[in-house]
# Entry
Amino acid sequence: MDSMLGTLRRIVQEVTARASFADSVTTLVSEVKSAMATDVCTIFLINNARTHYILAATDGLNVAQVGRAEMDIGEGLVGLVGRRAEPLNLEDARDHPNFHFLPDSGEEAFNSFLGVPIIHQGRILGVLVVQQQQSRRFDESEEAFLVTLSVQLAAVVAHAEAVGESPLIGVSGNALEDKCFAGVAGAPGIAIGHAVVLHRVANLEAVPEKEAENPTIELLVFNRALKAVRQDIGNIIEEFSGSLPEQELALFDAYLHMLDENALAGDITKRIQHGQWAQGAVKQVIREHVNLFERMEDPYLRERGADVKDLGLRLLAYLQDIGNKKHNFPKDSVLVGDEITPAMLANIPVDHLQAIVSIRGSRNSHMAILARAMDVPAVMGAVDIPAYDLEGKMLLVDGHYGEVYTQPSERRQRLSRELIEQERVFEEELDELKELPCITRDGWRLELWVNIGLTGDLTRSLDRGAEGIGLFRTEIPFMSKDSFPTEAEQSALYREHMEAFEPRPVTMRTLDIGGDKSLSYFPISEENPFLGWRGIRVTLDHPEIMLVQARAMLKANAGLQGDLRIMLPMISSPQELVAAKALVDQAYAEVVDEGVVVKRPQIGVMIEVPAAVYQARLLAREADFLAVGSNDLTQYMLAVDRNNARVAQLYQDVHPAVVMALREVARAAHAEDTGIGICGELAGTPIGAVLLMAMGYHVLSMNATHLPKVKWVIRNIKRSDARRMLARVLRMDNAHDIETFMHEQLRAAGLEKVLPHDRD
# Structure
């Protein structure tokens, strides 16, 4: 087994190292033939029209037939493998009824046949075949070996297809013209501009470890590099101080803190003092910290490993005297790179930045977060885009769909510029709604609140007409420290938000850790953390944590006119609610005994698990309000992790089961005359807002970005019409039909401005 694994790794490495696709497949067939000790290894690929299999590479058959020999899509044993999408293992292939002889190929001498499909994201790309003159059946280990290689080959073929590379003649001259590359929608919007490719010049892994000849000189060199990087970060802060909110700028302050003597810089200095040369010390410390972050469960924290690595690369670049490379940034710059990070903004004028395209990263990347704050379209995770072939080329970036078009056609440019202008005019229209209430044309009043967390921005939320905070993620101060924050530290942070929103209500969720959120100083290790010790379960087991937090919330609200609402996460039974309420009541009594004058807060429950849906009426009797956490509820109801690429398409926030669950919770709240709201992403979508309003939800809490569009939709529709739509939706059995129907209804109502633009 070890030998086979080693062979697999070696073949994959050799194939991926080849400069062209033709070289890759030629190398693969040769290596497979040798490793399996067979007479023939062949690759057949489906043509663009998906009408034929074409011989793409072979070792053992007539090489002159590569690119010439072809079979109909369903013809022969190759066609059978593709049609069934499973391996075919035959001792004597010529006896099989589907056998088809390929003229002039030289295969007449071969008997045994093993073919496996080459599949990428559910699509058949081709077939990988081995043949042998001797009649025999390939064993299970050989079959598993070939299947494993076909999986690796699928990614190579898909990438070549994406960049327009022919398996025979290499990259065609027009391969990148009007070519679409898919990624992840990092920040909404459409932009057209010219690519500026940012190369990572430094390479941490290439740095050798060696002793310093003169530690004093190494320290001097390191401190110069440290000063230069700090200056870069300072330049970013200065450049963006007028265009980014303080909370986003705090990211760069965090970068500076990472570089102080008590963090990365201090650790690196110690390594140099103990005899390591400067570059080696940077490599060691950065690698250790990156590994620490990458082991964390929380996707946001995992992404912070990229920030640490970026700082390390910047330090290394200056140590290697390559940190001052300047780019020419045109006025329509689209930043493109392997992993675009906030620190890379150091040299680009803010008014020249049109869009961002990053091969790596996700919606949780700091760069995606900043892009949303800056209203700059961004596409992350564009893994197939040939970044280093794009310098100076025109790109069209669609941050709504997560798509990048290289060298877009004049027609596509024209249509996109029309969309950009429409979005600009619509944004001006939305600005006029800021001070107006969110009320339907037939008088139904809704409250539009905001979710504040990692990307929360108080000023921006108020500027967009937020009427309260529906979710304040209090775990943030816990996650950003290396120990539990004190009562005073928590209280100061909470009061900042309460004062900003006074007299509007502020809903604070008690500590919600576990699942995908962990604390470095309070580790939780479980086989299945989402079904384990998380949310209210943690704080009920550690009442001291909840008591301190509740006291901090109450003291923060002292003397203010706004209503404090405390929300309990992951409640699955009325007993948990009663126990949590008792702790809040205890904290309230303690604060009052200290002479603090403060109103008793409202206590609410997050409906996030199916158990809470079915007990919603019981919970409503004990709680002051209910708030659906639709993100987690959808994942739990559908058993789908939306961050898992294999099943992400199954995450459907208007799945019939989810829609019915939302209606049942609303009915339960109304039956007990209890307030009902929602604080998931569904609330910020036009479809979701209309359906929730029809169900009778009182509060929709969302990202501040979505507030104006949701308000516009609600103000331009009647609740009676929305309820008729809901009645139809409740009779539908799939999410696609629901989405299609709702889009049709909103277009018929003249509300197409808030819907995604049609793909060309």
Notes: Residues 634 and 658 are 6 Å apart (CA to CA). The chain has 25 helices and 25 strands. The longest helix spans residues 215-240.
